[in-house]
């Protein structure tokens, strides 16, 4: 692993995305529209709906955003990368970039939702920790799926559907942690959930690192 | 191919009947057939489901094999 | 005519027949189906009508019965009158006071005879004492709760609500274990494929996974039938159930993924990678999360775990063979699929 390389790729990703502003804007527009629609139809959003809505919007926005991330570049560019970088460097850069991107996406969604329907979170520390771990897991899974869809040359929409069952366990844990953090239910063993989420993240990360070099070669 | 469709139709109507029957029985209080004699018929139902599942899989494989065999035959 | 691997296929069938006959024919231990009345007052004499299951009340000579409050407090029945083999009337003089300060207490009914051995019905009767009386443990001391009959039986344990459906352990539960064995086989061949790039391993991997999915779906179907007639619902909000559903969704996605590729090489690579990833993602689902939440299934939320009293010696004699038999039958089906896919591959190779 070469930290400078990783940083280079990371910066490159960032600049590419900022140059394609319409893509970013469309994702944020998507989030804003959904929040507004749900706000209008419920009129008053209670904490439980808030939590569920947050993660469902997050899930679909993330799905749109990340599956694209490996697809937006041309085949030739990949060949170029292949000669230039160590695959592990590239993977780490992609993972870090996706993670950062999803965190900022979540922040924006939370801001929009707070604007419309308030911010019901009571235990901010738990919420932040849980969200970060959950997003880490989601970004690992989605990165894996996007790698598959780019090297498989298959249908990108179908690939994104395949990603959904894989993130379900993470999503369920996330929902539970966030429900605890808005104090809808009291659960003394929520620490276990956080640990479990961390464990799931680590396992998935390990699997991606194991499988990536093989997938990358094609 | 038409017979396959008929088979599937038959199987579906059979399963539907079973489900409907069990619903009807579930509404009757003590007449519930599957709950009688220590619920032994639940065990029977479970075994039957497993059996049907395995047989249906074998049936599908058999079908596919027959098609392949026909392809080989046409070639010769 | 010679069949490949005849010996283990025969073995699988023989073990399955053994499980079927043994699992269905071994009787259930005696137990109590229900009792009336369900409540009584202190200081009265109650006649409890007992309906037993697999009991021998009229043939037995020495029937005894107790009502037990806790480990040291119990009373013995004054009279046990058998009506027929499964029905009897037991008479108790309930003392004036309960042994503990609680005003209402559930009592456990214990019965014992020389033919059926000892059997219990927890919370058989709720006894209430008057507000004016204070607890008196001494009244509950002379119970003579000992000298249980030792009966040498070959029976499956009797469980309330479950009754005969305890036999489903050999079919429903064993199905899950067999599914897991097949999934391991699938992932093993997926790893082999990635190592060697030999297409036959991909065929093997996908076939084992396919059979595992079939087993999983059958497991869900049998589980919901079992649940319908024990918990009275097809689907509960049970953690284990939902996690299993997620697992099956993941593997169904695997099958969908396979069907989208036309290029075999690419399909093999993608699906092997997905298979390994899915397996890794599944481990916390099936083993970690269910242990953390309450569940109706054994081993969760205070329910006894498999391996403890629940899976006793007699059950184990059929449960492990059932797992082996179902795994062998699954392997057989997978082998058929593998041979079919292999042939198909050869056929297409010849024509392109």
What's the helix and strand layout?
The complex is a heterotrimer of chains A (218), B (76) and C (352).
Chain A: H1 3-19, H2 21-42, H3 47-69, H4 75-84, H5 87-117, H6 124-152, H7 156-181, H8 190-216
Helix pairs in contact in A: 1-5, 2-3, 2-5, 3-5, 3-6, 3-7, 5-6, 6-7, 6-8, 7-8
Chain B: H1 2-27, H2 36-75
Chain C: H1 6-25, E1 31-36, E2 39-41, E3 45-53, E4 64-68, E5 74-76, E6 79-82, E7 87-93, E8 104-113, E9 117-128, H2 172-196, H3 199-230, H4 239-260, H5 264-292, H6 313-351
Parallel strand pairs in C: 2-9
Antiparallel strand pairs in C: 1-3, 3-7, 4-5, 4-8, 6-7, 8-9
Chains forming the largest contact? A-C, 34 and 28 residues
Average predicted local confidence, pLDDT of chain A: 78
Tell the overall outline of chain A. Answer: globular
Rg from alpha-carbon coordinates of chain B: 19 Å
Number of domains of chain A: 1
Tally the helices of chain A: what do you get? 8
Mean pLDDT of chain B: 72
Helix content of chain A: over 70%
Give Rg of chain A in angstroms.
Answer: 18 Å
**Structural class computed from helices and strand pairing of chain B:** mainly alpha
Task: Tell me the structural class of chain A.
Answer: mainly alpha
Q: List low-pLDDT spans of chain A.
A: none
Strand content of chain B: under 5%
Unreliable spans of chain B: 24-31
Largest sheet of chain A: none
Number of strands of chain A: 0
Strand content of chain A: under 5%
Total helical segments of chain B:
2
Q: Helix and strand string of chain A, N-terminal first? A: HHHHHHHH
How is this structure best described in words?
The complex is a heterotrimer of chains A (218), B (76) and C (352). Chain A is mainly α. Chain A has helices at residues 3-19, 21-42, 47-69, 75-84, 87-117, 124-152, 156-181, 190-216. Chain A starts with a helix and ends with a helix. In chain A, helix 3 packs antiparallel against helix 7 (156-181). The longest helix of chain A has 31 residues, at 87-117. With 76 residues, chain B is mainly alpha-helical. Chain B has one domain. The model of chain B is unreliable at 24-31 (pLDDT under 50). Chain C has 352 residues and is α+β, with helices and mostly antiparallel strands. Chain C has 2 domains: 31-140, Sandwich (Immunoglobulin-like), CATH 2.60.40.10; 163-351, no CATH class. In chain C, strand 4 (64-68) and strand 5 (74-76) form a beta hairpin. In chain C, helix 2 runs parallel beside helix 6, helix 3 packs parallel to helix 5 and helix 4 (239-260) runs antiparallel to helix 5 (264-292). Residues 299-309 of chain C have low confidence and may be disordered. Classes of the chains: A mainly alpha (218), B mainly alpha (76), C alpha+beta (352).
């Amino acid at each position: 692993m070469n930290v400078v390389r990783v940083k280079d790729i990371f910066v490159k990703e960032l600049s590419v995305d900022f140059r394609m502003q319409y893509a970013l804007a469309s994702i944020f527009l998507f989030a804003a529209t959904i929040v507004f629609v749900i706000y209008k139809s419920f009129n008053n959003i209670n904490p439980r709906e808030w939590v569920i809505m947050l993660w469902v919007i997050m899930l679909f926005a993330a799905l749109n955003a990340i599956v694209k991330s490996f697809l937006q570049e041309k085949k030739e560019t990949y060949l170029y990368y292949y000669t230039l970088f160590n695959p592990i460097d590239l993977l780490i850069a992609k993972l870090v970039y996706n993670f950062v991107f999803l965190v900022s996406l979540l922040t924006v969604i939370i801001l929009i939702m707070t604007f419309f329907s308030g911010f019901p979170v009571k235990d901010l520390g738990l919420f932040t920790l849980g969200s970060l771990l959950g997003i880490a897991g989601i970004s690992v899974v989605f990165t894996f799926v996007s790698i598959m869809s780019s090297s498989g040359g298959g249908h990108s929409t179908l690939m994104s559907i395949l990603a959904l069952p894989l993130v379900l366990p993470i999503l369920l844990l996330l929902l539970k942690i966030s429900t605890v953090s808005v104090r809808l239910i009291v659960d003394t063993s929520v620490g276990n959930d956080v640990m479990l989420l961390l464990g799931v993240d680590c396992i998935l990360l390990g699997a991606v690192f194991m499988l990536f070099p093989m997938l990358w070669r094609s | 191919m038409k017979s396959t469709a008929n088979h599937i139709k038959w199987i579906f109507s059979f399963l539907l009947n079973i489900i409907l029957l069990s619903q009807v029985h579930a509404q009757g209080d003590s007449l519930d057939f599957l709950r009688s004699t220590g619920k032994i018929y639940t065990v029977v139902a479970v075994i039957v489901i497993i059996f049907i599942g395995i047989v249906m899989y074998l049936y599908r494989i058999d079908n596919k094999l027959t098609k392949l065999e026909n392809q080989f035959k046409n070639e010769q | 005519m010679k069949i490949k691997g005849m010996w283990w296929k025969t073995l699988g069938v023989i073990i399955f027949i053994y499980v079927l006959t043994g699992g269905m024919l071994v009787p259930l231990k005696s137990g109590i189906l229900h009792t009336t009345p369900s409540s009584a007052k202190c200081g009265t004499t109650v006649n409890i009508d007992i309906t037993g299951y697999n009991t021998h009340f009229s043939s037995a000579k020495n029937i005894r019965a107790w009502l037990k409050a806790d480990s040291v407090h119990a009373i013995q029945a004054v009279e046990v009158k058998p009506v027929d083999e499964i029905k009897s009337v037991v008479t108790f003089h309930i003392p004036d006071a309960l042994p503990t300060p609680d005003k209402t207490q559930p009592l456990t009914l214990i019965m014992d005879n020389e033919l059926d051995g000892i059997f219990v019905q927890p919370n058989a009767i709720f006894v209430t004492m008057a507000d004016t009386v204070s607890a008196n443990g001494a009244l509950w001391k002379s119970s003579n709760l000992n000298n249980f009959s030792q009966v040498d039986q070959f029976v499956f344990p009797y469980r309330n609500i479950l009754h005969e459906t305890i036999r489903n352990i050999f079919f429903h539960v064993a199905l899950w274990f067999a599914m897991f064995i097949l999934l391991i086989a699938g992932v093993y061949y997926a790893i082999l494929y990635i190592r060697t790039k030999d297409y036959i391993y991909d065929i093997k991997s996908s076939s084992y996974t396919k059979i595992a999915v079939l087993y999983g779906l059958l497991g869900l179907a049998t589980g919901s039938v079992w649940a319908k007639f024990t918990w009275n619902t097809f689907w509960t909000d049970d953690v284990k159930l939902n996690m299993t559903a997620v697992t099956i969704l993941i593997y169904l996605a695997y099958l969908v993924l396979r069907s989208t590729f036309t290029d075999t090489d690419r399909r093999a690579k993608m699906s092997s990678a997905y298979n390994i990833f899915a397996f890794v993602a599944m481990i916390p689902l099936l083993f970690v999360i269910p242990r953390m939440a309450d569940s109706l299934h054994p081993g969760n939320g205070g329910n006894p775990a498999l391996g403890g009293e629940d899976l006793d010696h007699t059950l184990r004699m059929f449960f492990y063979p059932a797992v082996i038999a179902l795994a062998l039958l699954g392997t057989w089906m997978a082998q058929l699929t593998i041979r079919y896919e292999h042939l198909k591959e050869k056929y297409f190779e010849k024509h392109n």
